[in-house]
Input
Amino acid sequence: MADLARLSINQATTREQYSLAQAITAYSEADVAGISIWRDKLAECGLPEAVRMLGDSNLRVSGLCRGGSFPAIDAAGRQTSLDDNRAAIDEAAALGADCLVLVAGGLPEGSKDLAAAREMIRDGIGAMLPHARANKVPLAIEPLHPMYAADRCAINTLSQALDLCDELGAGVGVAVDVYHLWWDPDLQAQIDRAGSRVVAYHVCDWLVPTTDLLLDRGMMGDGVIDIQQISGWVENTGYNGLIEVEIFSAHNWWKRPGAEVIRVCRERFQEKV
Amino acid sequence: MADLARLSINQATTREQYSLAQAITAYSEADVAGISIWRDKLAECGLPEAVRMLGDSNLRVSGLCRGGSFPAIDAAGRQTSLDDNRAAIDEAAALGADCLVLVAGGLPEGSKDLAAAREMIRDGIGAMLPHARANKVPLAIEPLHPMYAADRCAINTLSQALDLCDELGAGVGVAVDVYHLWWDPDLQAQIDRAGSRVVAYHVCDWLVPTTDLLLDRGMMGDGVIDIQQISGWVENTGYNGLIEVEIFSAHNWWKRPGAEVIRVCRERFQEKV
Output
């Protein structure tokens, strides 16, 4: 149902197959509209070369992955994180990315204080926000599934992310990812609440069974998420940006030829999103 | 900090080591105050023998695990579930269990309709409630971690469980399990809201990393949950019942001698709960 003109592929979906240069070439040749870029892959490629290649392609950059990781055990650690986040903003601006995705970070080593981690997240985003605004890079807080609360991201519901947006003001929105949010009984209401603050929309599927907490995401249609229903809720906010396929799949999609993964992404995007 | 007089061990914690008869004997000899019983183990033992052994012991039964699994693809499936839930109530009554724990069930085979599954859960509990009330068996809706929404339980937050309690009325409460709920930014407020409807309190810990979605729970103190904080919130509701240790641990605690597991449960209960 989704229009292919809105298809972006997050390069993590072909992480094991392609360098950034190879992904730009392969996605472009397959007429994919956008790409989401990871900073480790960007560093390998070099920012100038990536900017040059993107300029020669028709690919839009739906997002840069990722800023965040704000909580740290001490002020020096938090400062290191802020410096890195400012560098990420500079990169996102150079790439013309639609947003910088923030995976906020979990508990600092040795801590059990989730409330304190959440305060560090708020303060960290607040501290980087002026630089993001000055560079016209929208920040996308991505609430991650509660199973990542300890070690990756202590922002675990869309409601919580929007409370942060309310507090922080212009320049901060949310990334809605069906994988992280599909279970939430309050999801429709919170997407409505988000309105124009939806700055990214990510799709994949929840497999049954799921055999790994991190690397066993499914292709759209292979799991149990009613993706079209959630897409409808997102559409109702007026969101008309790219829709990004992001699949971490160590035992399936990462083992297939990249061209096959792209082909199936295209098919399922039209049928299932 | 917790008083050993309130320690119950869920027999799943020694599932691989003990039959029900062996667990009753071992827990009693270790001066554990309570046991939570699983129906598959009860069936092996036989209800009359279990009742006789419990009568000869000082063990209280903090819960029977479990009722639930309400969603089904058709009316016949839902009726089968209701019949089974009524049998579970009869067993809980015979055992004098403090509650029947409900793990509500996830999506029926082939369905992606989470809202419909949640309606079936509400209707299922409503249908069994008169039998529970007549037998004076409190029902404990246990919200399960969102990672189980698809295949085990579509009730995933305490808020959602309490909404069901509000709708269904007397005889239905909640089981608060730190493993399922610790990540919820709204947890303190929802425990306050629960008040006297907290009918069970379960503890274990969230390990980092967690290597299995189901069978990698940690012993209290080995993970990142601030259990004492949550215990304080539960205490504030006036809950003064047994506190149950429930650990599914295929690769660690299930491989150790039962006596060692019980000993460590006792130690950590005093230090960490």
Notes: Chain B has one domain: 4-272. DSSP finds ten helices and eight strands in chain B. The mean pLDDT of chain B is 98. The first strand of chain B starts at residue 7 and ends at 10.
